[in-house]
Amino acid sequence: MPQDVTIAIRHNPSLHYAALPPRRHGAGRPSRGREPLDLNVTLRHNRLADELLITAWISGERTPRTGTHHAVLSMTGLAAVRGAGRLRSIWQDRLVRYQPTGYDTAPFGGFPLADSADLSDLTSVTGPLTADLAAEGFDLFERLLDGTSPELSSFRGFLTDTLRSERSLRVSFDSDIYLPWPMLAIDPDTYDDPWHAFLGHRHQVEQTGHSYVTPQRQWKRRVPQPVTSLNTDSTLESVGRAPEVLKLLQERSSLTVCTESGTFLDALSGAVLDDDVMYFWCHGHFVANGSPHPHLAVRLSDNRDIDAELVRRHRRRYQTGTGRFAPFILLNACHTGQVAEAPELEHLGKAFVSLGAEGVLGPQIEIPQVFATEYAYAFLELYLEGGHTAGEIAQTLVHRFAEEFHNPLALAYSLHCGIDSSLEMAS
What we know:
Layout: E1 39-46, E2 51-58, E3 69-72, H1 77-96, H2 123-144, H3 150-163, E4 170-175, H4 199-202, E5 204-208, E6 227-232, H5 242-252, E7 254-258, H6 261-269, E8 277-281, E9 283-287, E10 295-299, E11 306-307, H7 308-315, E12 328-332, H8 348-354, E13 359-363, H9 369-383, H10 390-405, E14 413-417
Parallel strand pairs: 1-4, 4-5, 5-14, 6-7, 6-8, 8-12, 12-13
Antiparallel strand pairs: 1-2, 2-3, 9-10, 10-11, 13-14
């Protein structure tokens, strides 16, 4: 006879997704295979027609008779690129470069929201500002999916309902156009707390897109101690928590420090790079190149620009799979989580992934240096433990900086691939 089953929840191991979940496996135990993503979204750009085709499916669920949920968007590719640029500019101008109009909260003329990672004493400013940033993120999300065709209305309902899930999902956006997905939001008016509207707060999010890697030998290995590199501008070595990050890498890994582009490029030109984690702590900027679209580059202590084409040139001979290069890369330099204005242009993170990197994490905007060191320490401390994925850690840090510091800047960091990247630590 059927019976009703009463269920009592005895504990809450995720702390409502405010803490890392239990490790996927213990030290010395074999890791589980990578599980299917919860939600897959593709955004394809027909450049001739400047038309966007969006497709989505949930792993393990039956799909419509057409095979997938899909639609042609009303928004053009150019409009999507401009919308993404506008959203980044708003975060840059209203958050990073916020200036008070008087002496109530900070000295006139400073940037108080960039001077410290902990903004707990400025909640009167950050509260309304975070709500406004969520509204802007929703505006771009809404405009992206705006339209009246039956297939677009159906798709909009499916994707919105899925992203509203109270369960934290692992979401991959395979997109020709690089949008700041963690900074996008669903309708914040439906939540008491605007934080809960941001996609990067609700879910683990990665961006992929045509970074197909020639299969390499199985380089992933279980290590007693990770191999890391710190590629840095020595003028930044005393900023914020940078000394503590260096100490962390020295104590928890086999570390190589590189301050000159020549040294870095020589190492990159070798067949085998053992790095499990490659950390960049330097300046990032866009370089004028005579075209309407400047390209992104980073600099170490010397003045040489390291860009996507330079990285590719020094590693081109190993793209057939004869070399070894599979690090997770934290590009902690301004703008390194984004691309140039034109979607067809190469960018640094994508170049690293196409050469074999497991993933690249970097900020979409000009990031304050003090916050960048705080974020790097928190991320690397958890990642070097092994067992937690980059996607889990990135989402956890969004929650941590929101709840402890009232600072939304962790949402500005985005993953290019790497949502499942983790260290396999030997006992």
